[in-house]
Write a structure and sequence with these properties.
Its main location: membrane. It is found in: Membrane. One of its GO terms (cellular component) is membrane. The chain crosses the membrane at residues 20-51, 72-95, 115-138. Helix 2 (63-99) packs antiparallel against helix 3 (107-126) and helix 4 packs across helix 5 (140-162). 81% of the residues lie in helices and 0% in strands. The mean pLDDT is 76. The protein has helices spanning 3-58, 63-99, 107-126, 131-138, 140-162, 179-187. By secondary structure, the chain is mainly α.
């Protein structure tokens, strides 16, 4: 065996091992644990919640409780739908990028790949801030609570702190003697 064939074998092994370790570390961790597993868990639990609400309708429960359960189930279902729509494109791109990597030697293709990754990553990060808006849209009770907190608590505190008006009458401590008293003092 020549030294060049051994070094070629080592280089092939190193390339394959780096691909394998990159797939396990970044591919498996990001794609399965960070993407598809949460999607599967969220979807299954939202289906269970939907099934539970369908079963609650048949039971003898107060109407208010049934209405609140429907609202919370609608919120959960919309949250899961938004989660799937926002996270799935990034996961699909990561699978594509792992299976078909672009080399830095082709700068245009590499730049396009990084741009697409940045766009999908940004869309995936919207997942973390959209909860408030989904809950505002789908729950009247949540809207009332937000209005109460913002208007009654925060606005009143800000108004008191910022726009405090001194609206009380205070006695004037600088008492000036009247003209008649001044004249009487001059006469003395």
């Amino acid at each position: 065996m020549s030294t060049s064939s051994v070094s070629n074998g080592i280089l092939k092994f190193t390339a394959q091992f780096s691909f394998y370790s990159g797939f396990i570390t970044f591919g498996f961790g990001v794609i399965v644990l960070g993407g598809f597993l949460p999607i599967v868990i969220a979807s299954s639990f939202s289906a269970l919640a939907y099934h539970n609400v369908r079963r609650i309708v048949r039971r003898q429960l107060p109407i208010v409780r049934r209405k609140l359960d429907k609202q919370i189930t609608a919120m959960v279902l919309m949250r899961v739908i938004a989660f799937i729509c926002l996270v799935l494109p990034y996961n699909a791109y990561r699978i594509y990028a792992i299976n078909f990597p672009t080399s830095r030697s082709v700068p245009m293709a590499y730049a396009v790949g990084r741009l697409i990754q940045a766009i999908f990553s940004s869309i995936s990060n919207i997942n973390f801030l959209i909860n408030f808006y989904i809950f505002i849209l789908f729950s009247s009770r949540f809207r009332r609570q937000v209005k109460f907190v913002l208007v009654k608590r925060c606005w009143q505190r800000w108004k008191y702190w910022c726009c405090q008006i001194d609206n009380q009458i205070e006695p004037d401590n600088n008492i000036e003697p009247r003209n008649s008293q001044i004249e009487s003092e001059e006469n003395i």
